[in-house]
C-alpha cells in the first residue's frame, strides 16, 4: 500500500533490507528505473451524509510531485504540472455517497522534462548536469524541486508521489482557506493587515470575521463583510487593525533580543452559520536592506538593519534535509534549527532548489529560534524558459508561496534565484553568442514577473533578483551586471580549493559573503550505514561515485597535505578513518574559521574601498544524504568538527589572531550592545609541556557592534621573549582575562606537519553519567591538537570538541 504523504521510492522501500535503501552504495544509479517509469495511486472511499449534504464539495491536493492526471469515478477532473502549487478541484457533480474511485496517474518527470525541452524553440542550458552527479537532464524546464534531478551535494531520484495531504472540503456558502498578514510602520505605530482567502459557492456573499491576537488583548469583530466570487471560486479580502508602538514587543534575531511572537486566531462565520478558522504565530519587526554610499569607497553598503539596529548576519545555507520528504521528522528539524542557534547563528539562506515539504512548516519555525531567513525562489544555476506558459506557471507558484510564508518574521529577504545572474554574466553555459536572448528571458522571469508580484503582495521586505548580485547596481545595469562578484556592491559567492585556505589575503573583501566553503567527509559511523568494507578508502569506486563535486576528494587531500601528513599505513580502513578526521578538522574546521574570522574582522574596515563586510553565510549547514559535502552537520544531524568551530567563531564576542606580514594581530569582534572593558592576554606555550614560557597583557576596550585591533607585535619578538629557539616548538593562546565566555583562540606560527615537540598526550578519561548527560573529565600528559571525542550510536553533542588541549585537565559534557 502507498503512504500519503509520501513518494514511490519510499513505498517501494517499505519492508525491504537496508541494502535496498535508495542511499545504499550505488542505488542512486540502480533505482533510476523508478523515476523513469509512470505510476498510479488508486483509492476507493465512501462519503458520509454530512459531506454530501453540503452545496459544494472540493478535492484539495496540497502537493503533487509533479505531473499527474487526477481521475475521479472515471472522469478526469484536472492535471497537475507544478510541485509547489495547491490544487483544488470542484467534484460536486462527480462525488458519490457509497462508492468513489480516485486515481492519480503520474507521468515520469524525467520523460516529461525531455518533452518540455524538445518543445522549446531554442536551447535553455544547461541541458544535463555534470556526469559526476549521476543525474537526469532538463530539470530547469519544469517546476519541480530542482535538486531532485541531482546536485553537487546530493543524489538524483526524480521522485513522484502525493507529497502533501489530500482531502475533501465541503461547504454551503463559504469557508476560510487561507490567511496571511503584513504590517505598515508609521511614526507612532503600525497598521496590521490580514489578507483572508475564502472558497465560496456564489457571490456577493457576506459573513462575519473575528480576529484575536493573544498577548495584545485584541479581539475585533468585523460584521457583514462581503466578498465577490471570482472565476476560480476563491475570494480575497483585507481587514486592518491599527496598533500603537506601545502595544507590542518586537521580534529580534538570535543574540539581539527575545523572539516575541503572538498567536493570531481568525474565525469566520458564513451567512449560513458555517464556521471555519485559521491560526498562526506572528512577530513584529522592521527589516531594511541598507545599500548606501560609504565614505572612502566608490561602492555601496550591503547589510540588514533590524528594528533600526545594524546586524552582522552569521550563519549558513540550508538545503533540503532529505531526498524523501516523508522521512524528515520534527525531531530532525528541531535538531538542525537548534544546532544553528547553539552555534550563535542568526541567519540561514534557504537555497533555491525546493520549497521543501516539511520545510513548508517546520523550517519556518525559525521564528521561534531567532534565525533570520534569506529566502530564495526556486531557480538555481541555470537559464530558464520565459515563454507564456512557463511564466503563467511561475506566477501562480510565486503568488502561492509569498502569501503562504509572508507572515513569518524570520523571513527578511526574498531573492529571485541562486547564481543565475553570475552564470549569464560570466558565460557558465556558453550563452555569450546569444547573450541578448538569454538576458531578455532572465529579465522577463525575475524582473518583470517575480519582482512585481513580490512587491505587490509583500512590500514589507527587500527583494533581490539574484544572489550573488550587485543589488541596486545590478538593477542599473539591466539586472545582469558585468561583474556580479564585485567587492563594492551586494553579496559574493567564493570558492577556492587550490590556495592555502588559511591565507586570509586570498579572501574577497566583500560587502556580504553569502556562500563560501570547503568539503569534508561525514563520520565513519555514518559511512558504515550506506557502504561496505571494500568501499572504505578515499580512492575507492564508491568514494569517487559518492562525491558529486568533480575532483572533490583530490582537493581535500591536496588541502590536507599543505598542513598535515596524509595517512599512509598498511591498514586501509584506519587510513580512511584518519583521513575523514583530517577532512573535517582541516579542509573544513580550520578553513571556515580563517575565512569567517576574516569577514567578521572586516565589518568596520575598508581595503581600498572594499570590505565593510556585514554577513558570513558559509555553504552549507546540513546534508541530504551520507556523502562528502560542504556541510557542518551530517545527515541525521550529528555535528562535524566545523560546527564545533562555528560555535566559537560565531560567538557574540570572539578573538581572532592572524599573521599580518610576520606581525601577530589580535582582533576582537563583537555583536554586543555594550562596551566590554577587559585585559587581553597573549600566552606563549611550548608543545613539550603545559607550563607557559611567557605572557603579554594589555588593557582593552571592545566597542559596541565592532571589529577592533586589540594587540599587535612581531611574531619573532614574541617567541624570543618566551625563549623559544625556533617557531616549530611554540604556539600562542589568546584570551580575555575577565570574560571567560569569550572562547580562547590559538595562533600556530608554522604548518602543523612541521611542529616539533609533540608527544603522545596519553589522554585519560573518567565518565560520570546523569540523566541525559555524560560528564567527561579528561587528563593529558602533554598538549594535544584538535582532540576529537566520539559517542558512537548515541545522538547528541559535546559541549566542546575538536579542541586544542593546552592545559592538562578538561571537563566536557555530552548532551544526549
UniProtKB/TrEMBL annotation:
Record-level Gene Ontology MF annotations: beta-mannosidase activity
Domain Glycoside hydrolase family 2 catalytic: residue ranges: 365-530
Keywords: Disulfide bond, Glycoprotein, Glycosidase, Hydrolase, Lysosome, Signal
Superkingdom classification of source: Eukaryota
Gene Ontology biological process: carbohydrate metabolic process; glycoprotein catabolic process
Beta-mannosidase-like galactose-binding domain residues: 1-164
Listed InterPro entries: Beta-gal/glucu_dom_sf, Beta-mannosidase-like_N2, Beta-mannosidase_GH2, Beta-mannosidase_Ig, Galactose-bd-like_sf, GH, Glyco_hydro_2_cat, Ig-like_fold
Pfam families documented for this protein: Glyco_hydro_2_C, Glyco_hydro_2_N2, Ig_mannosidase, Mannosidase_ig
Subcellular location: Lysosome
A cellular component term, taken from the record's GO annotations: lysosome
Chief site of localization: other
Enzyme Commission code(s) on record: 3.2.1.25
Reaction(s) the record says it catalyses: Hydrolysis of terminal, non-reducing beta-D-mannose residues in beta-D-mannosides
Domain Mannosidase Ig/CBM-like stretches: 663-753
Beta-mannosidase Ig-fold domain ranges (all copies): 758-807
Gene3D superfamilies given in the database record: Galactose-binding domain-like, Glycosidases, Immunoglobulins
Pathway: Glycan metabolism; N-glycan degradation
Quaternary context: Monomer.
UniProt family annotation: Belongs to the glycosyl hydrolase 2 family.
Purpose of the protein: Exoglycosidase that cleaves the single beta-linked mannose residue from the non-reducing end of all N-linked glycoprotein oligosaccharides.
Name of the protein in question: Beta-mannosidase
Amino acid at each position: 500500500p502507498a503512504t500519503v504523504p509520501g513518494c514511490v521510492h519510499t513505498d517501494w522501500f517499505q519492508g525491504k533490507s537496508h541494502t535496498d535503501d535508495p542511499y545504499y552504495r550505488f542505488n542512486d544509479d540502480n533505482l533510476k528505473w523508478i523515476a523513469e517509469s509512470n505510476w498510479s495511486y488508486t483509492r476507493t472511499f465512501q462519503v458520509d451524509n454530512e459531506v454530501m449534504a453540503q452545496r459544494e464539495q472540493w478535492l484539495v491536493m496540497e502537493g503533487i510531485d509533479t505531473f499527474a492526471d487526477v481521475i475521479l469515478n472515471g472522469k478526469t477532473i484536472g492535471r497537475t504540472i507544478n510541485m509547489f502549487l495547491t490544487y483544488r478541484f470542484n467534484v460536486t457533480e462527480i462525488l458519490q455517497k457509497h462508492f468513489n474511485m480516485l486515481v492519480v496517474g503520474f507521468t515520469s518527470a524525467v520523460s516529461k522534462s525531455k518533452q518540455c525541452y524538445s518543445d522549446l524553440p531554442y536551447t535553455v542550458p544547461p541541458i544535463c548536469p555534470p556526469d559526476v552527479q549521476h543525474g537526469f537532464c532538463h530539470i530547469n524546464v519544469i517546476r519541480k524541486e530542482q535538486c531532485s534531478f541531482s546536485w553537487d551535494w546530493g543524489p538524483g531520484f526524480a521522485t513522484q508521489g502525493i507529497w502533501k495531504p489530500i482531502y475533501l472540503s465541503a461547504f454551503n456558502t463559504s469557508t476560510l482557506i487561507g490567511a496571511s498578514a503584513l504590517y505598515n510602520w508609521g511614526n507612532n505605530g503600525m497598521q496590521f493587515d490580514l489578507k483572508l482567502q475564502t472558497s465560496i459557492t456564489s457571490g456577493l456573499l457576506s459573513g462575519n470575521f473575528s480576529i484575536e491576537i493573544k498577548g495584545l488583548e485584541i479581539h475585533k469583530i468585523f460584521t457583514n463583510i462581503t466578498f465577490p466570487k471570482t472565476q476560480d471560486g476563491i475570494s480575497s479580502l483585507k481587514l486592518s487593525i491599527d496598533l500603537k508602538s506601545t502595544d507590542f514587543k518586537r521580534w529580534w534575531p538570535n543574540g539581539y533580543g527575545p523572539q516575541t511572537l503572538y498567536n493570531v486566531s481568525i474565525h469566520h462565520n458564513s451567512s449560513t452559520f458555517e464556521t471555519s478558522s485559521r491560526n498562526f504565530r506572528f512577530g513584529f519587526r522592521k527589516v531594511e536592506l541598507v545599500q548606501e554610499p560609504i565614505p572612502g569607497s566608490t561602492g555601496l553598503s550591503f547589510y540588514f538593519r533590524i528594528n533600526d539596529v545594524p546586524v552582522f548576519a552569521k550563519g549558513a545555507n540550508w538545503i533540503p534535509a532529505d531526498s524523501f520528504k516523508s522521512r524528515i521528522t520534527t525531531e530532525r528539524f528541531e535538531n538542525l534549527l537548534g544546532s544553528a542557534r547553539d552555534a550563535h547563528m542568526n541567519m540561514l539562506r534557504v537555497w533555491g532548489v525546493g520549497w521543501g515539504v516539511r520545510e513548508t512548516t517546520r523550517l519556518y519555525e525559525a521564528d521561534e529560534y531567532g534565525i533570520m531567513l534569506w529566502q530564495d525562489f526556486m531557480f538555481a544555476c541555470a537559464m530558464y524558459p520565459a515563454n507564456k506558459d512557463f511564466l503563467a506557471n511561475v506566477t501562480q507558484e510565486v503568488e502561492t508561496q509569498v502569501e503562504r510564508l509572508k507572515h513569518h518574521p524570520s523571513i527578511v529577504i526574498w531573492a529571485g534565484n541562486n547564481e543565475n545572474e553570475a552564470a549569464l554574466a560570466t558565460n557558465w553555459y556558453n550563452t555569450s553568442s546569444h547573450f541578448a536572448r538569454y538576458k531578455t528571458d532572465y529579465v522577463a522571469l525575475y524582473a518583470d514577473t517575480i519582482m512585481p508580484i513580490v512587491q505587490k503582495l509583500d512590500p514589507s521586505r527587500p527583494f533581490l533578483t539574484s544572489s550573488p548580485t550587485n543589488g541596486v547596481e545590478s538593477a542599473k545595469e539591466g539586472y545582469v551586471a558585468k561583474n556580479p562578484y564585485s567587492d563594492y556592491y551586494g553579496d559574493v559567492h567564493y570558492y577556492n580549493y587550490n590556495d592555502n585556505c588559511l591565507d586570509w589575503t586570498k579572501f574577497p573583501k566583500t560587502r556580504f559573503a553569502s556562500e563560501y566553503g570547503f568539503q569534508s567527509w561525514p563520520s565513519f559511523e555514518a559511512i558504515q550505514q550506506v557502504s561496505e568494507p571494500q568501499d572504505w578508502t578515499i580512492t575507492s569506486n564508491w568514494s569517487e561515485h559518492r562525491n558529486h563535486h568533480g575532483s572533490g576528494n583530490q582537493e581535500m587531500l591536496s588541502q590536507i597535505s599543505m598542513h598535515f601528513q596524509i595517512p599512509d599505513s598498511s591498514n586501509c580502513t584506519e587510513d580512511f578513518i584518519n583521513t575523514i578526521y583530517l577532512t573535517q578538522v582541516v579542509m573544513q574546521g580550520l578553513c571556515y574559521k580563517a575565512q569567517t574570522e576574516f569577514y567578521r574582522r572586516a565589518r568596520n574596515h575598508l581595503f581600498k574601498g572594499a570590505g565593510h563586510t556585514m554577513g558570513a553565510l558559509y555553504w552549507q549547514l546540513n546534508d541530504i544524504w551520507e556523502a562528502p559535502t560542504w556541510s557542518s552537520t551530517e545527515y541525521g544531524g550529528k555535528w562535524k568538527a566545523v560546527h564545533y568551530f562555528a560555535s566559537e567563531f560565531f560567538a557574540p564576542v570572539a578573538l581572532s589572531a592572524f599573521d599580518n606580514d610576520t606581525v601577530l594581530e589580535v582582533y576582537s569582534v563583537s555583536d554586543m550592545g555594550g562596551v566590554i572593558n577587559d585585559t587581553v592576554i597573549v600566552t606563549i606555550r611550548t608543545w613539550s609541556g603545559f607550563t607557559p614560557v611567557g605572557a603579554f597583557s594589555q588593557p582593552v576596550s571592545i566597542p559596541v557592534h565592532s571589529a577592533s585591533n586589540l594587540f599587535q607585535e612581531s611574531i619573532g619578538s614574541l617567541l624570543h621573549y618566551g625563549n623559544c629557539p625556533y617557531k616549530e616548538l611554540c604556539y600562542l593562546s589568546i584570551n580575555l582575562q575577565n570574560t571567560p565566555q569569550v572562547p580562547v583562540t590559538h595562533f600556530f606560527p608554522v604548518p602543523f606537519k612541521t611542529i616539533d615537540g609533540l608527544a603522545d598526550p596519553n589522554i585519560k578519561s573518567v565518565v560520570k553519567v546523569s540523566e541525559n548527560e555524560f560528564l567527561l573529565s579528561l587528563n593529558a600528559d602533554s598538549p594535544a591538537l584538535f582532540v576529537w571525542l566520539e559517542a558512537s550510536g548515541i545522538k547528541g553533542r559535546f559541549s566542546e570538541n575538536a579542541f586544542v588541549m593546552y592545559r592538562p585537565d578538561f571537563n566536557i559534557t555530552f548532551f544526549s
